[in-house]
Amino acid sequence: MESLLSLLCCHYSLLILFQSKYQVYGNSSQLPKHPGFKVLASASHYWPLEDVDGIHEFRDTNGDIVEGMVNKGIYVTEKEGVTFLFFGNYKNSCISNPEVCGPEGVTFSFFWKTQDQQAKFLPASGGQVISSGFKICSNEGEGSVEFYTRGNAMMKWKASFSPPGPYWTHILFTWKSREGLKVYVNGTLNTTDPDGKVYYEYGDSNANLLTETQGDQAKRYVNGAFDEFIIWERALTPKEIEQYFTAAIGMQVLLSSTLPWSLMTTTTKPVLSTNAYQPIITSLTKKRGNYRSPSTMLGYLENVSFSLPNKSLSDNTALSLTEVFLNTIEDFLLLPNWVDVPETARVFGSLIQTIDTVMGHLACNLEEHSLPLTVEGVSSVADYSLVKTHPQTLNLSHYRFPSRGQSYVSIPGEAFCERGWITIVGLLYHNMHYFFHNINPMDTKIAEAAAYKGYMISATSYVISIKVEPLPKLSHNLSGSPLITIQLTHQLTPRQYSQALNKSNSVHLYCAFLDYSNGTGVWSNEGCVRESGDLNYSVCLCNHLTNFAILMQVVPLKLTREHQVALSSITYIGCALSIFCLTITLVTFAILSSVSTIRNQRYHIHANLSFAVLVAQILLLTSFQFSPGTMPCKILAILLHFFFLSAFAWMLVEGFHLYSMVIKVFGSEESKHLYYYGIGWGCPLVICAVSATASLGSYGESGNCWLSLDNGAIWAFVAPALFVILVNFGILIAVTRIISRISADNYKVHGDANAFK
């Protein structure tokens, strides 16, 4: 059960509930030869929303729309502020009960646009929508498809996408029991929900549609238009979806010549107007700041890139659209908590591809009657340049973008084609590299980096993009010519700089690019080589164009086999001698335990110190037998932390005891005994408990069974140890002064130089 009123919030107020309508009885031989029309002919249900085969729209005595001769549709008029299309309730239909679809699945398709320029302040229409089947809605700038099945397990699939603006957009979704829900926007897969979830709250499977009206003048609604509703009782393949989409928008035969709903504007054909780019600029401007979800905003930007009209535009229009589009990209970059979002690199790879698509489209569609044309500027996101010209007008030994600065791409003039016109798109991103950090080398196509599995890669330069149409003629091998030259200044963080200067690390710098051959951006270095450079810059040679950056991987140097054997031998021999001597010491203290009380207390302190060091040495040798990252290694790391801290704590007790004997006597022997044990064992226990609770992942992970050196956890040991050293050093100075003064006084009285010494 879901209140429709809750869906009809700020920006869009559209909801359509579909369950079945009349069938298509088509003859594919009578259709045009485009394969997309054969796909249409195989549909189960088709609503062109115009006259079809002599069947006209008409209303029955109740005022409801009836199209064809099968089912009744319910239409809520314009004053209600929302449009309903209802297709009956077929209990045994694949459409109303997807569980009977079988493995073939089901597909639903329609064209959709909103016409915000005609928006009015209209009353709300509220009520309840109760159905099985599926639902498409738009709410607060987010479109979504919800798909329901009812049976032994009531399931719901939901996929979100960016709703259209004031231009026609094709929405198609497929569902199969094994593949889940897939949503295609303009013929391209946009989003999916493969698994779904158990759902218990969506209405009654036997109910129809209930509506009631409630007025609310404060709500703002947007007019919408729909066209070409089609249902296939099978899931179309991606190829069929592309074929139908290209037929629909290319041939323009499937698009309606009339729009029957009074909710729509007077537009008679779902084609773009002459000033086709202005609605996109308006939409981008109005939507700034409206998105809080990265996936929703990225979907909207991708929708914009898919929906750009294939029409020429002036340089002023291109500049305006570029500025507005990059301002929207800035909003995307400013969304909070990007650093902590999983899959950040993948998301920003898709974002860069979307920017490339938009900028490339604008450059290719610049008006040709006033060539050469250059549109360039600087925004907070990037320096950009769009050039459309003839090769003869370049007359350069090389083309460089940007023309100034230490980071640039240079294309030899001989690489440009001699005929036709050339478009060049250049982008130098200011902050995009910050979002490509901690990249798993196994997720790249850089073989050298994958050899150092487990050592993450980060972008360490600006990301620069260059695209030329038609493609320049470049050498196939990196030893020939012409080649692209890329020089990029490194933008190292303080941590990266510190790691690079550490002589125990090996620094690997890769000239890399985003490879979209598999559909998503993956970093690769194929066709690129780092020719020269140092820690401050790199010069690369490449035989292709795309988005480039310098990636850095820091790998700790490994000792040679000889050095490892030598260090292991020293460690085992030294620890073994220490363990032997500490054991003798403890046995000696046990034998001498019958001495006087004062001396016995000193022996207690020495014995506890020796015991802590002895156990720590044994645990240290044992830890060499376990691999980092395992649970035994973590446990040993925590125990080592505790016993080494205890050793330092008992050293502090040694200092306090000396202070109490020489300078200031405090407390009874029994009370001092309790203090000493509290300091020697209690304080390390508290520190270890707090450290392990707060940062358990810092134990036994980085190469050995000890505290991590990377995230500051080592200070849980270093800080207490430094404190003990400083306090004991102060006690040593104070005790030395007292003894020196007493000895000097004795020398004056007795004149015995040996006593002074």
TrEMBL record:
GO biological process: adenylate cyclase-activating G protein-coupled receptor signaling pathway; cell surface receptor signaling pathway; regulation of skeletal muscle contraction
SUPFAM superfamilies per record: Concanavalin A-like lectins/glucanases
Keyword Transmembrane helix listed: yes
UniProtKB keywords: Cell membrane, Disulfide bond, Glycoprotein, Membrane, Receptor, Signal, Transmembrane, Transmembrane helix
Pfam family, one: Laminin_G_3
Source species, domain of life: Eukaryota
Compartments reported by the entry: Cell membrane
Boundaries of every G-protein coupled receptors family 2 profile domain copy: 567-757
Positions of the Pentraxin (PTX) domain: 80-283
Domain GAIN-B positions: 385-558
Transmembrane stretches, start-end: 570-593, 605-623, 635-653, 674-694, 714-735
Cellular component GO terms, alphabetical: plasma membrane
InterPro entries: ConA-like_dom_sf, GAIN_B, GAIN_dom_sf, GPCR_2-like_7TM, GPCR_2_secretin-like, GPS, PTX_dom
Chief site of localization: membrane
Single GO MF annotation: G protein-coupled receptor activity
Membrane topology reported for the UniProt record: Multi-pass membrane protein
Residues of the signal peptide: 1-26
Subunit relationships: Heterodimer of 2 chains generated by proteolytic processing; the large extracellular N-terminal fragment and the membrane-bound C-terminal fragment predominantly remain associated and non-covalently linked. Interacts with ESYT1; interaction takes place in absence of cytosolic calcium and inhibits the G protein-coupled receptor activity of ADGRD1.
Protein function: Adhesion G-protein coupled receptor (aGPCR) for androgen hormone 5alpha-dihydrotestosterone (5alpha-DHT), also named 17beta-hydroxy-5alpha-androstan-3-one, the most potent hormone among androgens. Also activated by methenolone drug. Ligand binding causes a conformation change that triggers signaling via guanine nucleotide-binding proteins (G proteins) and modulates the activity of downstream effectors, such as adenylate cyclase. ADGRD1 is coupled to G(s) G proteins and mediates activation of adenylate cyclase activity.
UniProt similarity note: Belongs to the G-protein coupled receptor 2 family. Adhesion G-protein coupled receptor (ADGR) subfamily.
Protein's name in the database: Adhesion G-protein coupled receptor D1
The organism's taxonomic lineage, starting at the top: Eukaryota, Metazoa, Chordata, Craniata, Vertebrata
